[in-house]
Amino acid sequence: MSLTDVYITRTAAYFPNDPVSNDEMEEYLGVINEQASKSRRIVLRNNGIKNRFYALTKEGKATHTNAQMASLAIRKLMNENAGELASLELISCATSSPEQLMPSHAVMVHGWLPETGNVEVVSPSGVCCAGMHAMKYAYMSIKLGQVEKAVSSASERLSPSLRADKFELEVQKLSELQENPYVSFDKDFLRWMLSDGAGAFLLENKPNAHGISLRIDWIEGYSFANEMDPCMYMGAEKLADGTLKSYLDYEPQQVIEQSIMSIKQDVKLLGANIVTLGFKKLKLSLDKKGIDASEIDYFLPHMSSYFFEDKMYDEMKSLGMEIPKEKWFTNLGTKGNVGAASIYLMLDELFNSGKLQKGQKVLLGVPESSRFSYVFSLLTVC
């Protein structure tokens, strides 16, 4: 079977509302138990994020759904044109924050796009790597000749789960038990890390007739879940033996009183492993494909925090694949950590920056801390 080349021919991003500065965050997220967060300033100083976006008002009212934001990014991608939307054959949509357990996120996105007709939809689950999995499904479908034109998207709406009112019953219960009425750091930490938004790519079996395209040379993923305990999780509690206890196995009142549905991060496990585990696999991918790091013109690393930037650089250098910092491209500081959508938002900004020249190589790197997964992809500008 002959395999066709696959190209990203357009990119788009959608952000809800105006950017929210560090000083405004608690106006949107609120304070827990009428006490300012102990960790907010420390976390913000380390993560280097200056602005982020929330799909809600200061009163906590939703302005967009997750699926709606993804559909708006796709509409923007297709120039708000019903005919172009109707030409799609596949829609692959990822998120780590679906707003329902059923139906799938992708069919909810499709529900906002009636012009597309009865196309195939697929919804890869996961966390930050899910956006890359969505892209890989679309890439493989075109590569095999099953479709000629597909959209992949990634979106997040985590802000509602970060609001103070989601933790009030927990701190009230702690107060009743005469314990420290502060939400634990593993929950509070992520309140200052995450952002809302959506991105989308158009993938086709031929490059743009006018303007640049990005040929997808390869996409490779690796999981360390066979070696590592969960590190970031939601809808569960981590037990002493490292396993997760599902919200389904708690009494309804316990789910509320212990904020079981909140998103949590084992910060010690994160810091000790997120960089060292995955980048040796990037070295393996580059070596397998005969690519030297000196050939990379742009490196787009998904980072939850600038805290990891130097650690990532040092690790890559130690593995013999140093990419100078001037070749790194990220918009974490201005757009925030948008989980699965972050790599879409970075690539969209670079794609539309006017900086890319034909023949250049762009390397994407997406670590995921949930149970330590990584996806890497090499693109060539053409």
Automatic annotation (TrEMBL):
GO molecular function: acyltransferase activity
Domain annotation Beta-ketoacyl-[acyl-carrier-protein] synthase III C-terminal: ranges: 286-364
InterPro entries for this protein: ACP_syn_III_C, Thiolase-like
Keyword Transferase: yes
Transmembrane spans: none
Listed GO biological process terms: secondary metabolite biosynthetic process
Protein name: Beta-ketoacyl-ACP synthase III
